[in-house]
Amino acid sequence: MKGLTVSQFYDTLKEKLRLRLVAGEKGLKRKILISEINRPGLALSGYIDYFANRRGQVLGKVEISYLRSLPPAERKKRIGAFLRQKIPFCIVARNYLPPEELISAADRIGIPIFRSALITTRLLNLCTIFLEEIFSPHTSIIANLVEVYGVGVLIQGKSGVGKSECTLSLVERGHRLVSDDYIYVRLIDGSYLVGEGSELTRFHMEIRGLGIIDVRQLFGVGCVRQRKRLDLAVTLELWEREKEYERLGLDEEYIKILGVAVPHILLPVGPGRDLALLIEVAALNHRIKRMGYHAAQELDRNVRELIRKREK
Amino acid sequence: MPEIVKDIKIENKLGIHARPAARFVQLSSRFSSDIILKRGEEEVNGKSIMGVLMLAAPQGSTVKVIARGVDAETAMEEIEALIKSKFGED
Prior knowledge:
The complex is a heterodimer of chains A (312) and B (90). Chain A has helices spanning 6-13, 41-44, 61-69, 72-83, 100-109, 120-135, 163-172, 215-219, 275-290, 295-311, and strands at 4-5, 19-23, 31-32, 37-38, 56-59, 90-92, 113-116, 138-141, 144-148, 151-157, 176-179, 183-188, 192-196, 204-207, 211-214, 227-229, 232-238, 253-257, 260-269. Chain A is α/β, with parallel strands linked by helices. Chain A has a six-stranded mixed sheet. In chain A, strands 2-7-6-5-4 form a five-stranded mixed sheet. In chain A, helix 4 packs parallel to helix 5 and helix 7 (163-172) packs across helix 9. The longest helix of chain A has 17 residues, at 295-311. Chain B contains three helices and four strands; from the N terminus they run βαββαβα. Chain B has helices at 18-28, 49-55, 72-84, and strands at 3-9, 34-39, 42-45, 62-68. In chain B, helix 1 packs antiparallel against helix 3.
């Protein structure tokens, strides 16, 4: 999303932030372009240089008390200077009554002013969390996402290789579907990835020959999950006779998504291979590695030790 | 069914640890012949990682390679070359 309008912000967070629009309605189509929030104490005191005018503004106890302490003419001047900076919106915390001058100037210039019942810190936190989510780097991938034993497994592969059947098997065994054939992936904190499906098709799957099914209705709410961190990627591929597949698992392979390296396994699909079972085992093996136990390395260490002893 | 048997000396410094074992089974799996490895009393399937690892054959030891099948001759040639190449190690 390339920025969002104040109106979208208001619609989404109205309840959570206990917001009420009190002025500047004609500015609701203003755009919010960055995730930071500002407290404009210094700007209100008259120092307008370097004022972070692209940020949403929050007025707390300090700002409101300060404005009230000013003579009316001065108050009007300061508020005018503040609003003329073309800020996207302004929220007054703790349900403080906004000064009359703020209301009239906001209506005139067209800057939405809200009142929130929340205390200032809480308000700042919630706004920042929400906006950071909106502005975080994101992409979409054609793949399935399933939570298997708590591990977020991305299942990729060409059309017809059996992604959906394998996903269905996993769900039937009690694992959780996040999304089929489409994953919206976001980078969180610049360090990890979270995926989810689209709101419209969420928890629906298309199975060749059966058509569209609703996994939540069929298997229950315990078998779905709205979003999940991407921990492991598995690519299903028709078994190529000449190709050599991983036999040891000593080395970790990765794929990069939004700059984050995700451990990757290439899983050949052949007759008699129970893919769901293999993915369950891959997920468990991933977990145990994260807990510090690496089976291939451990066994190799033991073999080398025995070899050394035999040399003597 | 042709059968070829050959004693081959392991020359790489670290012996047959996991990586050489993987290279060995990857190669032997390409042939339709049965590949059997013997070291002392132990006899293992040369197409199985676990089998080859079990031998824990150190540098300087000798393993008996048995290739049995239509492509036994090529199999033996390539297996011998792999072992002689020290599995690409020191």
